[in-house]
Protein: histidine kinase
Amino acid sequence: IEKKQNELQKIELVENLAASTAHEIRNPLTGIKGLVQLLSEKYNDEKDQLYFNVIQQEVNRINTIVSELLLLGKPTAHKLNTYCAKEIIKEIEPIIHSEANLKSVDLSIQFAYDRLPISCVKDHLKQVLLNLIKNALDAVNENGGQVRICLEKKGTNCVIKVADNGIGMPEDVLNRVFDPFFTTKETGTGLGLVVCKRIVESYGGKIKIDSTIDKGTDVEIILPLVLDKN
Ligand code: ADP
Structure:
């Protein structure tokens, strides 16, 4: 028991640290971003522009990492509300369709259920789904790539599934996907799935990954349904 308590304290410490440093980093970063933008308008020879582009890309990358760290900070501190899974997917539909179109990926969304009430922080669950869909889009080929999103009801759980027919994962990758900063991508942060797991578990849910090399990957978000009170 004592060991478990120690672990929990450690997690809490890391969460607090992540959230507070993330805020501290974000503010000066906004300043840098604005000034680089100004400078890039002033120095417009080709080579300078190249450098400015790199700076801007790197700043954006730090911003992404910081946003993910912020999400890692105490998801339980937010107030949970009840939403239907379908309405949350509906709200991110325009973004994911445009991302899929950019890569010419065939994206399909099936809403088999209208009413699957789940308890969550809406923006956080949206972020979870966006992370999973981004991974799916990264994993598929431009030719013949397919990403399927569907809703299922399994017992007293709502299952949101994101499936792709992409590169899949070998066992050693699959074993490490939830390790902070583990990534196989050149511009990855290795925090996407860590954030997903953290958020989903804070709702009493689970995340399950099934993957086969060269066949594809299925990721399931399993969330307890909010049962009717009557
Ligand atoms: P990132 O996307 O920044 O690398 P993630 O935590 O989201 O961070 O993912 C960690 C790693 O898991 C990825 O680098 C990739 O190797 C693997 N992965 C995640 N989703 C998929 C997927 N749908 N298909 C294949 N590999 C995946």
About this structure: The chain is about 50% helix and 20% strand. Residues 149 and 227 are 24 Å apart (CA to CA).
